[in-house]
## 1
Amino acid sequence: MSKPSVPASAPTREWWADAVVYQIYPRSFADGNGDGMGDLRGVLDRLPYLERLGVDAIWLSPFYKSPQADGGYDVADYRQVDPLFGALEDFDAMLQEAHRRGLKVIVDLVPNHTSDEHDWFRAALSAPPGSPERDRYIFRPGQDEVPGSGDGNRAPNNWKSIFGGAAWTRVTEADGSAGEWYLHLFDTKQPDLNWENQEVRDEMRSVLRFWLDRGVDGFRVDVAHGMVKEQGLPDWDGVAAMVEGTSEVPREPAPPGDAPGAHTDAEEPHRAVSPVYPPSPFFDQDGVHEIYRDWHRVLSEYGSDRMMVAEAWVEPAERLALYVRQDEMQQAFNFDFLMAGWDAERMAEAVDASLKAAEGVGAPCTWVLSNHDTVRHSTRFGLTDPTTFPKGIAGDDEQPDTALGLARARAATMVELALPGSAYLYQGEELGLPEHTTLPAGARQDPTFFRTQGAETGRDGCRVPLPWAADKPGYGFADSFQGEPAAPWLPQPAEFGPLAADQQDGEEGSTLELYRAALTFRSARHLGTGSLAWAEVNAPDSGLLAFHNRDVLVLANMGFASAPIPEGYSVALSSGPEPVAEWELMHEVPVDCAVYLVRN
Ligand code: GLC
C-alpha cells in the first residue's frame, strides 16, 4: 500500500480552521499606563503570556475612537485608536510583536451602526430630511398620534431596541421643530447605518482595507445578521433578544436538504418561519449575504489567509451555515454550543447539529463557551439549573456554587478543546475567573442595565479587569506600570486574588496549567483538524458524553454517578483536582469531570 503524500496528522487547511483564538476585551485585559483602563500597551506587555498559554490568535474587541457608550461598540472613527487605548502606533507595535511571536490578530468590525458622535451622524443631524447625509442612516417621519394630525408623534414602527426601550429616537431639526426619527437596534447612541446606501458600502470596504493594509489577519463582524432591514420596515411583534439569548420567536426547522457549499441565487430559501410571527424584519435578512460576498472579494485581494468570523445569533444551524459558504465568511460563532449549558444531551445535540451544518458548506466548526456578552461559564454551570442563561447576575439573584461551577467549567473547556474545528476562549477563563455577581448598581456601565431600568443586570460582571498579581493594587491589573495606578474601571471581587495569574503559574492543578496542558495536548494531537466519532460508551441521556477524535477518547461526566474508564485506556489529562501521579490509578471519571484518554 502506498503511503499518502500528506500525513493524516498534517494540517492541510488555512490557519483558522483549527485555530484557538483568545478574545481580548481591551478595557479589561491589562492596563499599561496606570489609568485604570486596559489598553494596547497592556496587550503588548502580555503577549508572552498568551504565547506561553498556547493560543494561535487573538481577537480584540473594539479599541477605536468612541464615546464608550457601549464599551466601544459605538464607533466614532473606524480608523483611529481611542486615546483610552493608545494610538495607532501602539496598535502597529502590538501587531508586529504578535506576529513575531506567531500569533494572528483579528480585530472587531462594527458595521451595523456607528456612534452618534461619528462625523456622519453629526452631519445627518444638521442636514435636512431627505438629504444625502440622512440617507446614510435610517431616518423616517413619525406616524401621527391622531391620524392626519401631522404631528408625527409616534415612532415609525413598533420595533424595540435589543437593549430595552424603543428602537427609534426623534431628533430636533435645525429650526427647533420636532423632526424625524432614526433607528437604533441597540442604544440611542448607536444609530443603524443604511446598507442600501452605496456610500456606506464603499466606506466599510475602505475600512476593511485600512486594517488589512496594516496587516490584520481577520475581522470579527459584529451583529453580522443585522445590517439589512426588510423593505418597508414592517411592524413586528416578536421579541428579538440578542446577546443573552436568541430570538424568542419559535421557529420551524429548515427544510431538509444539504446546505449549499457556495452561493447561487436560487439557494437562499430557507428562512425559518414561525407559526406565530413572521421572521424578524431586522435580523438574518437574505440581503446580508451579498455584503459578505463583496467583503470576501476584498479579503481575497490580500491572499488566501485573511478571515472573517460572524457574530450572528441565527437559528437553526443550517441558517447560520449560510454565512460561511465558500464565498462568504470563513467562520461563524456557534452560540448553540455556548447555550447548551452543562447538560450532556443538549451539548451532544449542539455538537451534532453544528458539525453537520458546517460540513454541509465545507466550513470549519467553531466552539465557544464564554465571551464579553454572556455570564461566564464557570458561573452559569454553578447555578441550580446549569443550562440557564441569565442576563447578568446581581447580588439578590441566586448566587452560584463557585467550586462546582469551576469544576464543570474546566471539564467543559476540555470538551471544547477536543472538538474538531476552531475554539474561542474569553480572557480570564484560563484563570477560572467567575462572573462578578455582586457588583454594586452604582458601578454598572452596561447600557442594557439602564435601558431596562435594572430589569436586566447586564454584562459588566464578565468584563471585570483581570487579576495578574495577587499582592499588587488592583490585583496587578496595571502590573507593568511603574507607579501608583488608578483603581480598575470596574471593582474586582476578593475571590480574584487567589486566582491571579501569578498564583497559578507553575502550580500543578491550577486552571491556568490545565488550559496550558489542554492546549498543548490539542495541538500535539492535531485535534482541531481531526473528526468526531461518538464512542460506544456515549450516553448523553445518562449524562455521559464520550467521543473519539483521532487517537483520543474524550469522556465528560455530566451525570450523577461515576463513569467507568473503558478497558485499555489511560488518562492523559484530567480536569479534576487529583494530582497527575494519581491518574494512572483512575478507573472511573467522577461526576463533573472530563478526561482525555489514550490507549495504553
Ligand atoms: C454585539 C457585541 C455587543 C454589543 C452589540 C452592539 O453583540 O458583542 O457587545 O453590545 O453587538 O454592538
## 2
Amino acid sequence: MHAKKRLAVFGSTGSIGTQALDVVRSHPGIFEVAILTAQTNDELLLQQALEFKPALVVIGDESKYAKLKSALASTTITVASGEAALEDAAALDSYDVMLAAIVGFAGLKPTLKAVENGKMIALANKETLVVAGDVVMQKAFENKSPILPVDSEHSAIFQCLVGEARNPIEKIILTASGGPFLGKKPNFLVNVKRDHALQHPNWTMGAKITIDSATLMNKGLEMIEAKWLFNLQPSQVEVVIHPQSIVHSLVQFADGSIKAQMGLPDMKLPIQYALGFPNRLKNDFPRFNFRNYPNLTFEEPDYKTFRNLALATEALEQGGNMPCILNAANEIAVWAFLKNRIGFLDITAVVEKTMQKINFIAKPTLEEYFDSDGEARNFAASMMKL
Ligand code: NAD
Ligand code: MG
C-alpha cells in the first residue's frame, strides 16, 4: 500500500468532483491525485491538473484534446481523450480509489472497468447501479472491489450499519427534501420553467440531479441504488419527506430500533467519509446546532403529484431492465427540459410511455442493458421529436 491514497477522480470538474478536490486539498498528507477526467470543461481540468499534478488527465470531448495537450506540454502529465481512454484509465494500476462522479449512464463503463480492476469505488454515480445493479454488484463481489456510497442518503445508511454486520436490516428509510416544489400541485408544475427548477433549497448540485430532485426522480433512483448497495427487497425501501435535510437517512433493525445519521447538508461530508473510510478525518466544516433547527419534520411523499417516484417504485418492484429503461428515458427527458424543449410534467409522461413501450427482460445480460438503454433513448427522443 502506498503512503497516500491515490485517487482517480472521474468527473473532476463537476459538483461532486470539485468538492472531492476540496477534501483532497485539506488533507494533503492523506490523499494524492493520480487521474483526473472531465467531459468538456478543459479550462477547469487544466487548472486542476496544474494544482494536483496527476500522472494522467482524460478529456472526453476530443475537440478539446489538442488545446489541453499543448497547455500541459511542459509538464510530465499524460493527456488522453475520448470514451475509450476513460475505460483505459480505469483499467490502470496507478490508483487505489476511483471516485465515480461522472453523471448519468456515461459513468457505467469506466466504473465497471475499475470494478473489474479490483479497485475501491467511491460511488457518486447512482445511475451505474440503477442501470445494471446486479451485474455491477456481482462483478464487485468477484473482484473484491468494495463499493462505498457517496450519495448522502446511502452514506448515512452505510454509517448506521457500521458494527451491525450480523444484524439484518428490517427496512431503510431514505429522506428526501422534497425539492423546490414541495407541496405544489400539477396546476402549478405544468408551468414550471428550467431556471426555477434549477433552484434547490438545500443542495447545490449539477443540473441533471437538480432537476431529478425537483421531480423526485432522484429519490426513485436512490431507492434502486439502495436495493443493490444493501442487498434489500423492494418492500424494505421507504421514502419520507424531510424538508430540512438534516437526517440523511435511517435504518430500522429487527428489534424495531432505528439509527439515523445527521448533519448539515454538505456533500463534502459523505465524500470525505467514503474517501477516508474507515477513518473519520478532522475538518472545520460548519457544525449542526439544534438552536437553528427547532423543528425537524417528516411527511409522506405526494406520489400522485410527483409521479416519477411512483414510476421508479414500479421499476424497482419489476426489476430486470425496467430501471435501465426508466433511467434512459429520464436522462433524455431531463436533457430536453433543460433545453426548454418540453415542460416539467412532460418528463414523467416520457418516462411512463417509454416504460410501457420497451420490451421487458427479466434477467438481462450486460449487453442487453446497453441495448435497452439505447432503445429507450431512441424511443424517448422520437416521442419528443428531438
Ligand atoms: P455535474 O454535472 O456537476 O458533473 C458531472 C461530471 O461528469 C463533470 O466532470 C463532467 O465533465 C463529467 N461528464 C459529464 N458527461 C460526461 C460524459 N458523457 N462522459 C464523461 N464524463 C462526463 O454532476 P454532479 O452533480 O457532480 O453529479 C455527478 C454524479 O453524482 C451524478 O450521478 C449524481 O447523481 C451524483 N450525485 C451528485 C450529488 C451532488 O450533490 N451533486 C449528490 C449525490 C449524488
Ligand atoms: Mg442523494
